[in-house]
Amino acid sequence: MAEIEEGQSSDQGKAREWLARAMRAPRDPAWTADGIISDEWEPLSPVTGRLDAFEWKVPVASSTRPAALPPAAPEQAALPAQSEALLPLAPAENAQ
Fold first, then answer.
1. Rounded to an integer, what distance in angstroms lies between the CA atom of residue 41 and that of residue 87?
2. What CA–CA distance (Å, rounded) separates 60 from 46?
3. Per-domain residue ranges of the chain
4. Where is the composition biased (Low complexity) (predicted)?
């Protein structure tokens, strides 16, 4: 609406008023289950696996499904794993 107002009347004040209204507007309802917001209904909760957990309601907070973890950076992949960390060596026995 702000873009339409600005395009039709070039009134910056009215365009800002529309933007302010949009910021104060209540959230739209969405499919929500166990704190996760989904674009579409799903039969199982992605968190608990509970059947028919999704409800069409206004979410209390913005929490979408977590994305897949990004691939490790090359310098992180080259580091030894925690279990492969270098350990101090025991003193060598005399081979005399």
1. 51
2. 18
3. 2-65
4. 74-96
Give, as one character, the DSSP assignment of residue 46: T
pTM for this model (two decimals): 0.46
Return d(Cα 39, Cα 59) in angstroms, integer: 12
Q: Mind listing the pLDDT tens digit for each residue in 6-56?
A: 778 888 888 888 889 888 888 899 999 998 999 999 999 999 999 999 999
Give the HSE-up count for residue 49: Cα atoms under 13 Å, Cβ half-sphere. Answer: 0
Return the SS3 of 9: helix
Do residues 45 and 36 touch, judged by C-beta distance below 8 A?
yes
3-state secondary structure of 51: strand
Alpha carbon 29 to its chain centroid, in Å, reads 18
**Sheet strands (E) in the chain:** 30-33, 36-38, 55-57
CB-CB contact of 38 with 29 (8 Å): no
